[in-house]
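FIELD: query
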Amino acid sequence: MTDEIRAFLLAALTEMRYDVDDVDDDTVFGPAGLDVDSLGLAELAVRVEDRFGVKFDDDEAESLAMMTVGEFCGTVAQRIQPASAH
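FIELD: result
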C-alpha cells in the first residue's frame, strides 16, 4: 500500500509543480527538502484525503513539514488500515 501512496504523492507534487526527481523516503516536505509551503501542504493533505479516505486535523498540516516522504506514506497507510477493517 505504501508504494501506491508514494506514487500518488509524487504525482500530486509533480502536478503542483514541485521537482521530485531526487525525492526518496528520507526527503522532508519542509525547507530542508521539497520546500513545500503551508498552502502546498494543505493542498497535498486534501488530495490524499480525497484519494485514500483519510483525515488530517488542521493542526497536523504544520507537522507535515517535518515529516519525510516515507513517514508520511506510513502515516497514511496506518490510517487506511483501520478504515478498511470496518
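FIELD: remark
The first helix runs from residue 2 to 15.
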